[in-house]
Amino acid sequence: MRWEPVIGIEVHVELLTDSKMFCGCAVGFGAEPNTNVCPTCLGLPGALPVTNRAAIESIMAIGLALNCEVSPRSVFHRKNYFYADLPKNYQISQFDNPVCTGGYLDVEVEGASHRVGIERAHMEEDTGKSTHVGAGGRIHAAESTLLDFNRSGVPLVEIVSRPEIRSAEEARAYAQELRSVVVELGVSDARLEEGSMRFDANVSIRPQGSTDLGTKVEVKNMNSFRSLERAVEHEIARQIGLVDSGGKVVMETRHWDEEAGVTHSMRTKEGSSDYRYFVEPDLVPMVLDREWVRQIQETLPELPASRRERYRRDGLGDALAGVLAAADPALRHIYEDAVTVGADPKAAANWVTGDVIAWLRRRELDPIELQLDGAALAELVGMVGEGRISSSAAKDVLDGVLSGEGPPAEVAETRDLIQISDRASLETLVAEVLAANPKAVEGYRGGDEKVVGFLVGQVMRATQGKADPRMVDELLREQLLA
What's the CA angle centered on 280, arms 277 and 286, to 5 degrees? Predict the structure, then answer.
């Protein structure tokens, strides 16, 4: 029997607000443990929550960007469970009245677009952070556990997809596209390595052609896109192998072991009834009026999908458009400003996504620190196109510009990289090279085209690489045929 994977992704996004969801404690990564805390986020008796308006505006922006309906009335609930990093023994979350419902996100896999439905996006508070000491960081064999409540109460948006993803590759593409949207909105830095964006995957299988849903398994502990793809791939194979051998998939939560490349059972999967949801008595319902929603809608930036399509219209291929659309905003602005002043779009995009990014990585710098603007990039592209500098010399010119040595023309002059394009001078050099290489000349006239490359190389060597190779090739052929 052939099996079809059915996958849904739950994504948790920490918001970039100044303060926590229900108190005034600062939000920030890397502070000393248990320094950004107060009675409210520690769950001390008598402390009352107050809703963070900025966080609500952020989730509305996320929902609108994902084509969701923003609910006119939304309610907070208590999600009750007991764990060491949850000081109140309940989490303020949402149940049947989330902020956003019923959206979608289009993702591209191998050139084909697929629409993934969004079930809901709801607002909640994050838990504290547990660090299990010893035994590879696993709780069951740890010698001790350290608790840091700085993260407790940080605004958290949970985005739940419908079970409409059909492969591990598509799951990765969905997560990457969602991250691009969130980062573009500016509501989160969505840094996977810092835990400000986290994935849980619900994976099941069903017979090909069936519309029934199988028994789902939740997979946790995936801290990169690669981990997500590998974990989902493994879990699909595990379930198929289990069922094909006569076993039965049970609903449970499993832990992804990145090093071993396998999932391990953690606990039986809970249902909503296990959390005993009830309305949070310390918070009034939120009324999200249409005018407020309209104001948020008007602040939305151009989103990645729209930008990719615009770049395709610029003449960039799918791959290049995708890389550039996902690049840092500072890099995209350089590209767009260069095109605005007349640079060839494809050439400008290749410089930005290739040599500029490589230069930043070598020096471990942020794009915002670049000493390059669109006008300078357009000048560089133009100098190459006009034959004033060679492609290889242009890399040196770019290095000089990025190092603060001045605009491209000035750097090319200072570094003596201007290409020799004087026809009379090159004609003399070509004649000298031909005279010094009679066997090559004889070979060409005997039908050996390959010697042209050798002769071009001799002229380039004589000019220390400064001759315009196109003009050299043209002059060589003229004189060889004379």
Answer: 115
Name residues whose C-beta falls within 8 Å of residue 238's C-beta, 6 or more positions apart in sequence: 262, 263
| Residues 60 and 122 reside in one and the same domain | yes
Which whole-number Å values give the CA distances from 141 to 73, 94, 144, in the listed order? 45, 33, 9
Helix (H) or strand (E) holding 199: strand 197-207
DSSP 102-126: EEEEEEEETTEEEEEEEEEEEEEE-
Instruction: Using DSSP bridges, classify how beta strands 69-70 and 3-14 pair: parallel, antiparallel or unpaired.
Output: unpaired
Q: How many CB atoms lie within 10 A of CB 387?
A: 14
Query: Do 104 and 29 lie in a common domain?
Result: yes
Spatial contact of 377 and 411, defined as CB atoms under 8 Å apart = no
Residues 6+ apart with CB under 8 A from 253: 217, 218, 219, 220, 265, 266, 267, 268, 269
Distance CA 317, CA 338 (A): 18
* Residue showing tokens 């290489």: 437
Q: Which residues contact 62 (CB under 8 A, 6 or more apart)?
A: 13, 100, 121, 157, 159, 181, 182, 185, 187
Query: Comparing C-alpha atoms, which of 472, 4, 348 is closest to residue 203?
Result: 4
Instruction: Count the domains in the chain.
Output: 3
Q: What is the rounded distance in angstroms from the CA atom of residue 21 to the CA atom of residue 333?
A: 33
User: Are 8 and 204 within 8 A, CB to CB?
Assistant: no
Name which of 303, 376, 313, 306 is nearest 341 in CA terms.
Answer: 376
Name the CA radius of gyration of the chain, rounded.
30
Contact by Cβ (8 Å): 402, 365: no
Q: pLDDT tens digit string along 231-261?
A: 999 999 999 999 999 999 999 999 999 999 9
409 and 430 assigned to the same domain:
no
The 10s digit of each residue's pLDDT in 214-227 is 999 999 999 899 99
Place of tokens 């009834």: 273
- Token output for 311: 């770049």
Alpha helices in 250-390 (DSSP H): 290-298, 304-313, 318-325, 329-340, 345-351, 357-363, 374-385
Beta strand 112-125 with 100-109: parallel, antiparallel or unpaired? antiparallel
Q: Report whether pLDDT(137) > 60.
A: no
Place of tokens 């069951």: 140
User: What's the pLDDT score for residue 424?
Assistant: 78
**CA geometry: angle at 356 spanning 355 and 362, to 5°?**
85
What's the rounded Cα separation, in Å, for the pair 121 and 103?
9
| Residue 261 and residue 314 share a domain | no
Residues 286 and 311 in one domain: no
